[in-house]
């Protein structure tokens, strides 16, 4: 019998990424998807799943509400439930733990991080389903095999912690969707608009050059680590009047050298947004209009 996993997220981009990762590491597992908690609740009422991978912030029914329902339902009380979200501040983690969450995965995350969480929750069932060698070899030499108990050797890097003083330590999120188009507006000359882009295991401070409700173009100093095209990303924007716009979710759409030479010190990035959250879009609209 194959292992069945339910992926719950309102962002098709995230669901597709999780499904690709599952196919890479656990091709024997059957993965189904739900666009929100309400749809997942219906599917869980009709089918048995060995693992739930669920976003927190969704329309109609949130991940926390789905978790609460699952733990009150006799058929799903013991089903492993992993909350996949950027809401990594201590209060939200404690709240999820009190409601019976099995584990927590902060966004953005790498396929390897996801694989480790899956193995932690249903590793024995995956072994019984005879997960193929592809799953073990892809994690690299240090992990040896995702399914042989050696997964603890592949150290998962912790997600960035939230602080109230700096973008450098604010939370990250990758949820999805599409935003309505807006006219691009460049930053006023002499006025710095700072942001930080979060990737799975590093952060990139940058300056915003232009921004719309669809995407943001930034310039960052070239460093030892840099993202690749299509890498999941989260943008945190520092507001001039204080505070931040946090957890605008997207992916790397374009990379370009600022100068036409190999040793250029600065790189230009375009992050395409995939966030549907109306509150974030409203705040972002005000931010764009303030230039």
Entry keywords:
291 residues, alpha/beta, Rossmann fold, Thrombin, subunit H, 2 domains, six-stranded antiparallel barrel, five-stranded parallel sheet, 26% strand, globular
Structure, described:
With 291 residues, this protein is an alpha/beta fold. Helices cover 27% and strands 26% of the residues. The chain has 7 helices and 12 strands. The strands form 2 sheets. Strands 7-8-9-12-11-10 form a 6-stranded antiparallel barrel. Strands 2-1-3-4-5 form a 5-stranded parallel β-sheet, sandwiched between helices. The longest helix is centred in the middle third of the chain and has 18 residues, at 111-128.
- The proportion of residues in beta strands is 25-35%
Helix content: 25-40%
Q: Name the helix and strand elements from N-terminus to C-terminus, one letter apiece.
A: EHEHEHEHEHHEEEEEEEH
Number of helices: 7
Could you name the CATH homologous superfamily of the largest domain? Response regulator
Task: Itemize the secondary structure elements and their pairings.
Blueprint: E1 4-8, H1 12-25, E2 30-34, H2 37-46, E3 51-54, H3 63-72, E4 81-85, H4 90-98, E5 103-106, H5 111-128, H6 133-138, E6 185-186, E7 194-198, E8 203-211, E9 215-221, E10 232-238, E11 244-257, E12 266-273, H7 278-289
Parallel strand pairs: 1-2, 1-3, 3-4, 4-5
Antiparallel strand pairs: 6-8, 7-8, 7-10, 8-9, 9-12, 10-11, 11-12
Question: Short summary of the structure?
Answer:
This protein has two domains: 150 residues, Rossmann fold (3-Layer(aba) Sandwich); 123 residues, predicted glycosyltransferase like domains (Thrombin, subunit H, Beta Barrel), CATH 2.40.10.220. Helix content is 27%, strand content 26%. A six-stranded antiparallel β-barrel has the order 7-8-9-12-11-10. A five-stranded parallel beta sheet has the order 2-1-3-4-5, with helices on both faces.
